[in-house]
């Protein structure tokens, strides 16, 4: 096989392992999930799985990093779509915060997964969130607002979704809160653009 084909096969195998691992961790929790569970779910043997990852901690960190990266990609793509500022910001918040909340809410082991996420994938999360914030900053810069105002908007869009989870809302309630935040910030952005 050509080296490029090998890399493509390895990348697609890692994607399959990530998807299987996320399903298994969601269904069983981190502690109860074994390498055998992940290998079975990925349709491979345990020895084959060890060719890609050292242990389940390694798989968890890699799978969560891939999940965050994909969420960041979808969120930033939403900012580039046609539509109103409110529509773009709502898409941004829904694709990142809303989709992740929905996935976590579907797992009976969400608290354990969140704990493992911060222990095992903190660096990957930081890289993904930094890329998300950079993309949002570029988007907000186009508003023409002063830097201080753009920083306020970015803080609202970043921090508010975290507080919206405080009372463990349903997915529908959480998504509604994100949409309200998007409309509120968009109204302020639109007002600044009108004044300019």
Instruction: State the major sheet.
Output: none
User: Please, what is the average pLDDT?
Assistant: 94
Number of domains: 1
Terminal Cα separation, in Å?
Answer: 59 Å
Order of helices and strands: HHHHHHHHH
| Unreliable parts | none
Number of helices: 9
Keywords:
mainly alpha, 9 helices
What does this structure look like?
Helix 4 runs antiparallel to helix 5 (about 85-105). This protein has one domain (about 55-195). It starts with a helix and ends with a helix. The mean pLDDT is about 95. The protein is elongated, with a radius of gyration of 19 Å. It has helices at about 5-30, 35-40, 45-50, 55-80, 85-105, 110-120, 120-140, 145-165, 170-195. By secondary structure, the protein is an all-alpha fold.
């Amino acid at each position: 096989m050509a080296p490029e084909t090998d890399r493509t096969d390895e990348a697609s195998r890692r994607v399959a392992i990530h998807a299987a691992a996320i399903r298994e961790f969601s269904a069983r929790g981190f502690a109860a999930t074994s390498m055998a569970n992940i290998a079975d779910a990925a349709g491979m043997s345990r020895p084959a799985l060890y060719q890609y990852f050292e242990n389940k901690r390694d798989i968890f960190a890699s799978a969560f990093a891939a999940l965050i990266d994909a969420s960041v990609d979808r969120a930033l793509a939403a900012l580039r779509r046609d539509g109103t500022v409110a529509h773009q910001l709502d898409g941004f918040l829904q694709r990142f915060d809303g989709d992740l909340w929905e996935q976590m809410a579907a797992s009976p082991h969400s608290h354990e997964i969140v704990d493992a996420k911060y222990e095992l994938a903190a660096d990957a999360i930081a890289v993904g969130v930094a890329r998300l914030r950079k993309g949002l900053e570029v988007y907000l810069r186009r508003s023409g607002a002063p830097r201080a105002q753009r920083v306020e908007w970015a803080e609202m869009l970043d921090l508010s979704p975290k507080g919206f989870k405080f009372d463990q809302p349903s997915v529908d309630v959480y998504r509604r809160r994100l949409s309200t935040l998007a409309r509120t910030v968009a109204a302020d952005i639109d007002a600044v653009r009108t004044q300019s």
